[in-house]
Amino acid sequence: MRSKPKIPIAETVKSADICGVGDGPAFSTLFRIALLALGLSKARAASLLQVDKSLVGRWASGAVRPTEHNLSRISALVAEHVPQFSMQDWQRDARSFSELMGVDPNLAQRSVQPPAAVGGGTLNCVTEAHTETEKRGAAYEGFWRTTRPSVLMNGRVFHDYGMIRRGDTGLLEVTMGGAGLAFNGWALPLEGNLFVMLDGAVGFTPLFLIFRGVTLPKVTRLDGIVLLAALDAARTPAAMPILLERVADLTGDRVDDDRRCTEMSTNDPFEDEADISDELRAHLFRDVGPEAAARGGEMFLMVSAANMFSRGTTPPGQLEG
């Protein structure tokens, strides 16, 4: 595995050195706005910039400011998504900077952290998920593709692409994207299922997913349900089936894996819509409710053992446990 070049921890450039004026906006605020606009987690940004994730965290928190060299690298990364962007734009006020990036400045203060604490305490499910991730986290790590119905385009089926990987928090970190949208969050293996919470870079509303788990050492396909707010004018709450399929394994090189994940997010979300099997299409658009139940179907939208698509495998040379 190649080692990443590391930036010295003693990075202590002052406000005036970067933003030009001492009473200007904090770089950390503008940096968080940029991360939100680009749909990047701190870990993803660190990989793209080839610096320690802790350093990116200190930039975002305001503990330290980037050196001129690193500010140039950050600016180049932003310019890949906002072509008119330059280093001089770090001197803008927060509102002007947000308008340039297309992000609400009031939301830039949000820091996406693992759902570990409520009211100063730790959620029991997160504690249990840490234990389960230690045991079976490797079963879920890899590159993945979703297949799900479109809320806004009736009858259409499309894909998101992304990666599941254990992070420094001890939890499974999830990065997904497609059709101009980007989502980051965490997957919690609990009670034989996989619970996923994602934060969207567009719309700033979370997505919640539950997948029927697999007991085999390597998961290849997960059948589940997604709950989201549709991107219509009313942000209508909606629930629908979703299928998550493994498309490749991680290489173990975090920089290369991040690069591949970024490339996958540019794939055509409708690339093989015509080739989706009748069986899968019927599963994604199945009828539920009293009439369906009277015919032997489901009263509620469920991922039951009788009709689930979840699958797993045992890698060669590994015994089933």
Give the overall shape. globular
Largest sheet, strands/sense/barrel: 8 strands, antiparallel, barrel
> How many domains is the backbone divided into?
2
Q: What is the mean pLDDT? A: 80
Q: Strand portion, in percent?
A: 15-25%
CATH class (first level) name of the largest domain: Mainly Beta
What is the CA-atom radius of gyration, in angstroms? 21 Å
Distance between the termini: 29 Å
CATH architecture assignment of the largest domain: Beta Barrel
User: How much helix is in the residues?
Assistant: 25-40%
Quick tags:
434 Repressor (Amino-terminal Domain); 12 strands; two-stranded antiparallel sheet; Lipocalin; 321 residues; disordered N terminus; alpha+beta; single chain; 10 helices; eight-stranded antiparallel beta barrel
